[in-house]
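Morning run. Coffee first, then this:
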Amino acid sequence: MQNEEKLKVMSHFQKYLVSRDISEIEQYSLEDLRHTDASFGNLDLNAGFRIAMRNRIKDLGETQERNRQSGNQRLLYFAYFISGVVATVLAQWIIKQLGLA
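And here it is:
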């Protein structure tokens, strides 16, 4: 990452710390922030903007994980529903074949 881009991100996070206006930092994706954080290396680890950036990375990561889990849960419920329908149709077919109906 170029120094100019790093300084721009750092500036936005410093402005965010003062104003607490999320619009200062919401333009950066999780990947952008991870890349920027990695490019800083061990520099400024205790600086306010760096702590705020790492908190934002954590928040975005958790949100992404929750969204992924929610999608998986919907897929699981759909699979349960389809399994129930198939089991019901199969049971009715077996009952009909055995002449129990």
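The helical segments are 3-19, 30-40, 48-98. Good start to the day.
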